[in-house]
Fold:
Amino acid sequence: ILQDTVGGLATGDQSSTNYTLLAGFQSLSEHPTFTFSVSSATVDFGQLSVSSVSSGSHTISTSTNAPLGFTTVVTSDGELSAGLSTIDPVADGSVTAGSEEYGVSLVGTDSAFADDQAPTTSGLTVASRSSWKNGSTTTVTYKASITNGTAGGSYQQVLTYVSTGNF
Structure:
């Protein structure tokens, strides 16, 4: 096993907007690593109420040595729905009791936004980082509220998380 080298000139990491240079023999030994996990496959709002915002959470975790970090996107299969009835996605940045709306909020150093936003069929970035990170965790809290006119039912939505290392 080779532990060290001598005589290398201009070794080390260098980067610009579009490129990263890992110069020197020791840089060749780094192998790309990437792990991603979701703490729970389901989130239950429980009984929705006009007088309060219902919520449920899980965490997403990413670890990578990718020099340019990672990006995590959530994509929905459509609106939060029960049969033909739907609950509208949040439009004003805050899920509010007494309004019919749903969305997600994020907590974590690599969270992509600070207000409430709704997952879309085209994708919503929920976490990102521009450098490597070992153990980035973001808590995703799902929120829903209804009005007296909201149809009853078991509302559901399928969300798909995709996290990509930016090598």
In short: The mean pLDDT is 89. The radius of gyration is 21 Å.
